[in-house]
Every structure is written in structure tokens, then in C-alpha cells.
Amino acid sequence: MDLKLSVEHEAFREEVRAFLKAHAPDAPAPEDKGLRHPKRLAWQKTLIEHGYAARTIPAEYGGYGAEPDILKSRIIAEEFARAGVPGGLASQGISMLVPTLLELGTEEQKRTWIGPTLRGEVIWCQGYSEPGAGSDLASLKTSAAVEGDEFVVNGQKIWTSTAREADMIFCLVRTEANAPKHRGISYLLFPMDSPGIEVRPLVDMTGVANFNEVFFTDVRVPVSSIVGERGAGWQVANATLTHERGMLGDPNAAYGRLMAIAELMQTETVDGHRVIDNPVLRDRLVELQARVAAMQANGLRIMSARAAGESPGLAGLIVKLMGCELNHQLAGLAIDALGELGILYEEGEHLRAGGAWQARYMYDLGLIIGGGTAQIQKSIIAERGLGLPREPKPAKA
Amino acid sequence: MRFALSEDQKMLAGTLGDMLAGTAPLERVREAAGGDEAVRAALQSELDEMGLAGVTVAEDAGGLGLGVLEAALLQEQLGRHVSPAAFTVRAALAGALCGEPFGAGIASGEVRFGAALAELGGARPGAGVAAGADGRLSGRALFALELADATHLLVADKSGTLHVVETGAPGLAMTAMANIDHTRGLYDVEFDGVPAEMLADTSAGQRAVTLLRVLFAADTLGAAQAMLDKAVAYAKEREQFGRVIGSFQAVKHMCAEMAAELEPARALVWQAAHAIDEADADADLLACLAKAHLAEIGTFIARTATEVHGGMGFTDLLGLHYWFKRIGFNRQMLGGPERHRAAAAKLQGWA
After folding, report:
1. Is the N-terminal amide bond of B101 cis, ω within 30° of 0?
2. Using alpha carbons only, what angle is made at residue A303 by residues A9 and A296, rounded to the nearest 5 degrees?
3. Cβ contact (<8 Å) for A301 and B267?
4. Nearest Cβ partner for B1 among A9, A315, A318
5. Where residue A253 falls among pLDDT bands split at 50, 70, 90?
6. What 8-state DSSP symbol labels residue A111?
7. What is the DSSP track for B112-127?
8. What local confidence, expressed as pLDDT, does residue A78 receive?
9. A336 vs A66, A149, A207, A264, A286, CA distance in Å?
10. C-alpha angle A173-A318-A204 in degrees, rounded to nearest 5
11. A166: closest CA among A212, A198, A124, A219?
């Protein structure tokens, strides 16, 4: 057990601080909204050049090309957070498609897509879930029939974030109608402006369309757009799902929220008394603080295991379930601390933090469901982590 | 930077775990808990033979010279096997606080400390010890630990200052307090002008509380791990409706929830123990958080693991209740989780 940084890593931290001091004024501000805002794209380019985004992606594909060093990645994240400076773009294209292409893409696919995706020039959306295929994703029905050198895609996807902005989609389709469900799926890449694609915004409980539905009617896609073998799309997709679950439940984000709530509870007053002087609310704050501390320590343990080339085991399997639940509980405490102020929304003189806690409380419930529901996570923990038997298949009628 | 146990630390904990699994199975624990003093003494001497009495005593005084993290890992194993052997006070705490001048005696087992420190976490009516002008102690301490064959007693007075008294000293009277966890004894100690030696270190009271918080948390970690392991094993073997019950989602998810709570808690206990070793500024805070958090998740696991066992979990025959009660004991010692969270809030200027 050694929680001190080596000389090399201390020096690296100084390097990151120096970069931030020199370049922070170029970073986009919160009001520079939009995935294609020129300031965002310029900032991403600067970050890649200095190795603070796309750090370990090979330079030949448009990354920085550093050796993987989990600790350095953590130092970058910590220093950017401390300085309040936005880090690199965190799109589904970058976090999910790029690692998949690096692992399973053809040389041409890597050269065509990774660089522009990293730079934010090409925006992707993910076509996985369908109305009839949620937790049971492998039962998806969107079909792709071969006609000459093209697939003809028909069907519907749902829960597609950034579909309205996206240039491209990475999409799971059924190419082998008669194969067992896990062996009939292929992973295709195609443009969102292809004829036959219709995008409908899907307004959720937050009042905003964070997601969309995407409809495909005879969409023609060249057969060369496939990633991996025909019928092997399930394995390709699982490579990306692993990357997605790593993104959800980050304990350092939870720590930031905890501190924001502590601040909120020390500034908001009821009857002239600070909210934190209410012993019940204060007790809840510290109870969640212990949970955040446990998840942060768990995060350090996972990082050390990965750095040593070991599997983090159960410590890793529980992160999505526990991290998302914790974030939701934190938002719930913030709302209870706000009381009646916590039911205000959208706008108005008395609204706090622009209604962010209210939006988070609802959006985070979505994250408990999305990316593998809490119940699916529990089955994974029990089966892969504890070795409990899988659910028996129902007998065929 | 590496947040992981060293090979030495794993081996130390593994050696004790193997020893306890071999020589202290539930049948023997049950005999000791039932009042068989010879069995309890035998279990104690097996621990002493490993040299663990001097775990935190410096090497040049004949101890192992190890830190709080190692002591916590050992405590975890003792909780895992619901061991009736004295260790928390007699080895870990005494070595850390009274190594000077008692180190060699603690390590050899000639000096055996018990502790009357419960009032550091809050005094019940009638409890509280005060030092007179002559340094002699008078008053009463409740919930004193590890007194079965103690030679010395570490006592906190009302101001939080610690004193050492000999258990044979005049004016000292001890009465056992029947408690839920028969693997550990509690005592009601009366002091009537008992000669005492004050500890020079005025921070010793706070250090003792911080250490005990982490050790009780570690004991619960081990006991909860044992309950989870037993629940999972039972769920893989017990059949109802023609299937093992672990194939039902209702049961499977109970097991997953226990594991999901326990794994991060383990990392928190390691970090809290390590923080004491490093004299980290957050050590007191982390100890409060660890004690409170392990109390909460320990209670959840104790209850859930019992439910996974169905009716058998409720029987004396299976003996699961020894772990259930051990976790309950750890939860309340030095105060329940609310008191430790209140202390954590105070440390941060929130109260």
C-alpha cells in the first residue's frame, strides 16, 4: 500500500499544471454549447497535441501515442477537475467506437474513422436498443438483407443519444435470420444522412429530448461497412459495452457532487438556520460521504489491479450498479436539502443551480436503467462474480 | 503509488485465516462461547504462538513491528472466524499505545491488556471514571473489553486521558455483563481509589478511539465476508421447486447486493487503516466513516445472509447467529453509526 506518487508522476502532475496555466484561457466556456462549436473542436485539437486527450491512441490513427499509464490518466483528470477546465470530448464515438475499431476494425476503417472521430469532426450515435430488445439486446430485430454488394436495413432503434447531431451510426442489425440469436447479428457503420433514415426526438422525464428514436426504411449500406465478421456483431458489441460501463459510475464525479451538496447545505437556510444544522440531513450527508469514500477507495484498488495487469474481479463488476445508485442518492439528498426549492424547475428567481439537481435526480434514474439495468448488473455480479447458476432456460413448448 | 495489499500482508492474513479454519472451527468457538474456559484459553494460546500479541510492538522490543493495516487484516480474519481470542485491545491497541514501557511484556504475553474505553464514545448514566489529586481512579466504567485473563487495564477518565492500572490492584472490582455476542466478554468495572499510572501522551485517547473504530470495522468486514460466503454456498446447494435456490433471481440478487456493498467497504477499511499508519491528516475522519459504514453494510449483510439461509439461518444448529451477533456487537461498540457520523461532521466543521 503506497498512496504517494513517484518522482516521475509528481513531475507529470507539474507538467499538467503548467499546461493548464498556459492554455486554460483557450478552453470552451459552458455557454459554448453544441458538439461542433469551433472552440470545442479547437480545444480538443490542442488537448490531443499535448497528450491530454486520445492519450494512448496510436499517433498513426490520430492519437497522441503514449504508453498506457493509468495513473497519468488519473492525474490528468484530477488536475483538469481541480482547475475547473473541461477535459477532452467524451462522446460515444470516442469512448465506445474508437476502442472497438482499434481492437476489431480493418486497417482502412481505423484510418478512415479514428482520427476524425477523436478530433470531434465526425459525430457518432449508437444503434443498439430497440423497443423489443432492451435488457435482452440480442433479440434485436432490425434486419439487414444482402442485395448485391449492399445491406438493406429495415427496423427501428431507440434510446439513441446525439442521433440528431450525428454524422454516422454504429449499429447492430440481424443479418442471419435463421441463426441462433447471438450468432445472427452484425455490426455496421453507416451515414445518418442515408436515404430512408428518420430521427424522432424522444422527450424524457427531465422535459428534454436527451434521446431519440431512429427508423430505417430500406437504408442501403455497402457490405464493406461491417466491423468484424458477418454474424459476429454480438462479440463486437460486447467489446463496446465494456467500455460504456467503465464510463458510468465514476466515483470522482460523485465526490465532486458530495462537496457541492456540503456547500449547498452550508449556504441555504430555513428559518435562518443553515440546512446543515438539521441533524437528520447532516447525518444523511455523512452517510453518503462514507459511500463516496468507499467507492473512491474501490476505484484506486481497481486502478492498481489494472496497472499490474490483474483483473479487478468483483471490485470492478459492482461499479456501474453502485456508482449510478450513489449518484442518484446524492441528487436526492440535494433536493431534500432544498425542500420546496427543490421542486422548482426550468426557470425563475428562486431556482437554484439552474435546476441542475432536479434534472440530475431524474436523469440519473435513467442511468440506473440505461447501460444495463440495475437488475441485469446484479445478475452479472451474482453469475460472474459469485459463480451462482444462470437462470434456467424455459422448456420449449 | 499502489492501492493493494503486499504479498507479505496477504500471507500474514492468509496464515492466520488458515490457522483459524483448521484449529478454531465453529464447534470449538461454540464451546468457548458456551463458557468452556479451557477451550477459550487454548484458542488464545494458538494465536499467541503465532507471535500476534506483539503485532504492533516494535521489533527491538520483541514484537512484529507491523502497522495498523496489518492489525486490521488480522482482525478481519478473527471476525471471519468469530474468534473468541483477545486481540483488538491486548495486541493491536496495547502495542500501539503502551509499547513504551510495556512492549516486551505485550509481545511475550506476560502483559495482557484489557480496556475500559467505552466512555470515550459517550458515557451512560452512572458511568465515568475520574482521577483524584493523588492520581488514583474512582468511578465506574461499562463495556470494558478483553478482561478474561488481563493483567493490566487501559482506562479512559472523563477528560479522555488514559491511565494504566493493574487488574490485581486494590479497589478494583469487575463484573461480567451478559451480552449478545458470546465470543466476546464485556465487563462492568468499579474503581474505588485504584492506583493508576497516567499515560503521558495526551493524544492517546483520540488515537485509541480512531484505532478501535478501524478495528471494529475490520472485524465486521471479516464477519460479513463469512456470512456472504456461507449464503452463496448455501444458495448453490439448497434445492426447492426442483432447482438450486441460487438460480432464482430473488435469491441471486440478494447475494449480488451483499457483494456490491462489501467490496467497496473492504477498500475503505484498508484506506482508513493505512491512513493511521501514514499519520494522514484525514485518518480520524476516515476511521469515523469506516466505523459507521461497516456498521451499516454489516447489518444489511447479517440480515440478508440469514434470510438466504431461510429457516436454517434462524437455528442455533447452523450457528450463523454467531456472525450476526458479532456484527451487531461491533455496530454498537463506541456508539452506533449515527454517533460516528456526528463525529465526522464535527471534524469537518459541519457541526
Report:
1. yes
2. 100
3. yes
4. A9
5. confident
6. I
7. -EEEE-GGGG-PPTT-
8. 86
9. 45, 59, 21, 11, 15
10. 55
11. A124
Q: In one letter, which amino acid is B69?
A: L
Alpha helices in chain A (DSSP H): 7-23, 38-50, 70-83, 92, 98-104, 107-109, 115-118, 233-247, 251-267, 279-307, 314-317, 319-338, 356-369, 374-380
Using a cut of 0.90, tell me whether the model's pTM lies above it: yes
Chain B residues closer than 8 Å to A379 by CB = 249, 252-253, 256
From A262, which residue of chain B is nearest by alpha-carbon distance?
B350
| Distance in angstroms (rounded) separating the CA atoms of residues B206 and B210 | 6
Categorize the per-residue pLDDT at A251 as very low, low, confident or very high, splitting at 50, 70 and 90.
confident
Say how far apart CA B287 and CA B234 lie, in whole Å: 33
Pairing of the two strands B172-177 and B186-194: antiparallel
Are B205 and B156 in contact, with CB atoms under 8 Å apart? yes
How close, in Å, is residue B58 to chain A by CA atoms?
A: 20
pLDDT in tens, B144-177: 999 999 999 999 999 999 999 999 999 999 999 9
Q: Do B274 and A3 touch (CB under 8 A)?
A: yes
Instruction: List the 208-247 stretch of B: residues with Cβ below 8 A of A.
Output: 232, 235-236, 243-244, 246-247
Looking up cell 433514415 gives: A197
Instruction: Give pLDDT tens digits for A121-180.
Output: 999 999 999 999 999 999 999 999 999 999 999 999 999 999 999 999 999 999 999 999
Residue B175 contacts A where some CB pair is shorter than 8 Å = no
B317 Cβ contact partners less than 8 Å away, ≥ 6 residues apart: none
Cα B83 vs. chain centroid, distance in angstroms? 10
> How close does chain A come to B105, measured CA to CA in Å?
30
Chain B residues with CB-CB distance to A377 below 8 A: 256
Do B114 and B90 contact (CB within 8 A), yes or no?
yes
pLDDT attached to residue A290: 98
- The 10s digit of each residue's pLDDT in B275-325 is 999 999 999 999 999 999 999 999 999 999 999 999 999 999 999 999 999
C-alpha cell at A303: 486502478
Using a CB-CB cut-off of 8 Å, the residues of chain B touching A290 are 268, 289-290, 292-293, 296, 341, 344
Question: Could you tell me the CA-to-CA distances from B234 to A151, B29, B186, B228 in Å, in that order?
Answer: 51, 21, 33, 10
Q: Which of residues 14-53 of B touch A (CB under 8 A)?
A: none
Helix (H, G, I), strand (E, B) or coil at A213: strand
Q: Please measure the distance between the N-terminal and C-terminal CA atoms of chain A and give it in whole angstroms.
A: 57
Q: Using a CB-CB distance cutoff of 8 angstroms, which residues of chain B are in contact with residue A307?
A: 2
The CA distance from B246 to B228, in Å, is 13
Pair B193, B169: CB distance under 8 Å: no
CA distance A355 to chain B (A): 25
- How far apart (Å, rounded) are the C-alpha atoms in residues B323 and B64? 29
B112 touches chain A (CB under 8 A): no
Question: Which amino acid, residue B325?
Answer: K
Known catalytic residues of A are 244
Distance CA B154, CA A304 (A): 39
Least confident of A277-281, B43-47, B249-253: B43-47
The cell for B195 is 492506583
Enumerate the residues of chain A whose CB falls inside 8 A of the CB of residue B249: 375, 378-379, 391
Q: Is B295 on the interface with A (CB under 8 A)?
A: no
Are A294 and B252 within 8 A, CB to CB? no
Neighbours of A134 (CB within 10 A): 17
